[in-house]
Amino acid sequence: MADADRSERDEDVDALLVAEAADLVDRDDAASLKQLTSDLHESDLAELLERLSPTERVELVRLLGDDFDFTALTELEEAARVSILSALEPAAVADGLAELASDDAVYILEDLNEAQSQAILEKLPFAIQHRLKRSLDFPEETAGRRMQTDFVAMPPFWTVGQVIDALREESDLPDSFVQIFVVDAAFRLMGTVSLDRLLRTQRPVKITEIMNEEPRTIHAEEDQEEAARIFQRYNLLSTAVVDEGERLVGILTIDDIV
């Protein structure tokens, strides 16, 4: 009986949240809406969007402005996501996508028609635009579409100390990463170095001396289901994605596969 009462209370809280959000949207109260949603996880924000009307969804995103986490859109059903994106200005969508991991941005863009996605891409900084276009050029449901293009790559002639110093000075690192990729001048993958191995090694040692020279890789045009099976078979947390010339083009992580 206690569990049933708790479940009913949780449902009441959810219903109250939806009702309050709808009321704030109706009253055009951006400040209170930002306060109401500030602590919501992206999946909870997506659920809130799902339970609002189509018009209320768009207005909520507009009112939140820069405070809206576009990652929540990856948790929405496709129809709801496309409906919201179609109602927003391309520049507003571009600003939101610029803050996302590249795989999440691609996931959002690939549901739009070519004219819509192109209009958004044109509003993005060139470097981000280039990375996203590269992923979108790969066929649907392939590793290339699911990969992240944010990774850390270093030349083979650097020492451990140089790598550590470069990581400390770089302001545009991925939010999280567990390994560094060693590439030649043509960006062909030579090996990988795990962060724990890097930090346990003396500064003068060259990274080629501690790298894994036979890293597991997945080709960008590999079917995403086969990529998932490779992760399962070899118990991987992340792996490199390479093109037909064995050049490093991205990475897949376990959360991408899940």
Structural overview:
Helix 7 crosses helix 9. The protein has 14 helices and 6 strands. It starts with a helix and ends with a helix. The strands form 2 sheets. A 3-stranded mixed sheet has the order 1-2-3. The protein has a 3-stranded mixed sheet with strand order 4-5-6. The protein is elongated, with a radius of gyration of 22 Å. It is 52% helix and 10% strand. It is mainly alpha-helical and 258 residues long.
How would you summarize what this structure contains?
The protein has 258 residues and is mainly alpha-helical.
Question: Overall 3D geometry?
Answer: elongated
H/E element string?
A: HHHHHHHHHHEHEEHEHEEH
User: How far do the termini sit from each other?
Assistant: 35 Å
What structural category arises from helix and sheet content?
A: mainly alpha
**Count of helical regions:** 14
Residues in β-strands, percent = 5-15%
Please report the total strand number as a whole number.
6
Largest sheet, in brief, is:
3 strands, mixed
Determine the mean pLDDT: 90
The largest sheet has its strands arranged as 1-2-3
